[in-house]
Amino acid sequence: MTSSKELQNKVAFVQGGSRGIGAAIVKRLARDGAAVAFTYVSSDAQAELLVHDIVTAGGKAIAIKADSTDPEAIRRAVRDTVQQLGRLDIVVNNAGALIWEPIENLTLEHWERTINTNVRSAFIASQEAAMHMQDGGRIIHIGSTNAERVPFAGGSIYSMSKAALVGLTKGLARDLGARAITVNNIQPGPVDTDMNPADIDAAAPVKAIGALGRYGTPDEIAAFVAFIAGPQAGYITGASLMIDGGFSI
């Protein structure tokens, strides 16, 4: 693995890491020298392939099957990370549910799934991690530019859940600051993934909103996460940091 290795001897836990942005984050943290544990729900083959690719390239990774809507599964995954990899320095909360529907179509089940996946899972993972994390560690939430701007109808509960991460980030940063543990919230704009492709007709109006006129890539998000996880970002905490190509301006 060719890398600066700024995360050498660090252990990272990525919640929701088998595909898309999560997989790119796992690969980047491993490339930068961290041993990485990541969770997934159902994509066994993708998870196994990701571990294989990292190990083949000289890194270290483990996959843990855990549903982010199950509080005990999240806690167990964090504990398993510490047990198998020996410590915990970095947590990335990337699990997410995107339900985009007009208000009249939304149900309480939609609400609960969105909150449990996008907010509760981040809180639980952070709380459990704080019991095991080394001082000077990093907690990073993957939020959304939609916490700041909702340009299309149907995003009420999704944007609400991502806005909740802004407040959670600030509170956790205060709680953990005395231990030099930073807590930050990365807010991507549209990103080209298999679930949100940039080459379909529906992407055209989305691209038109951003100042750069394009979707971001998972690798661009992962590079930003790696910086916040690294030694040069130790004075950044409680922040919600936009990486959206000017989507929110």
Q: What strand order characterises the main sheet?
A: 3-2-1-4-5-6-7
Shape: globular
Overall number of domains: 1
Radius of gyration: 17 Å
CATH top level is Alpha Beta
What is the count of β-strands?
Answer: 7
Low-confidence stretches: none
Distance between the termini: 37 Å
- The helix content is 40-55%
Q: What is the CATH superfamily classification?
A: NAD(P)-binding Rossmann-like Domain
Question: What features would you describe in this structure?
Answer:
- The protein has 249 residues and is α/β, with parallel strands linked by helices.
- The mean pLDDT is 96.
- Helix 2 links the parallel strand 2 (35-40) and strand 3 (60-65).
- Strands 3-2-1-4-5-6-7 form a seven-stranded parallel sheet, with helices on both faces.
- The chain is globular and about 45 Å long.
- The protein has one domain (11-241): 3-Layer(aba) Sandwich (Rossmann fold), CATH 3.40.50.
- Helix 1 crosses helix 7, helix 3 (71-85) packs parallel to helix 4 and helix 4 (108-130) runs parallel beside helix 5 (156-176).
- The longest helix is centred in the middle third of the chain and has 23 residues, at 108-130.
- It has helices spanning 20-31, 44-56, 71-85, 108-130, 156-176, 203-209, 218-229, and strands at 11-15, 35-40, 60-65, 90-93, 138-142, 182-188, 240-243.
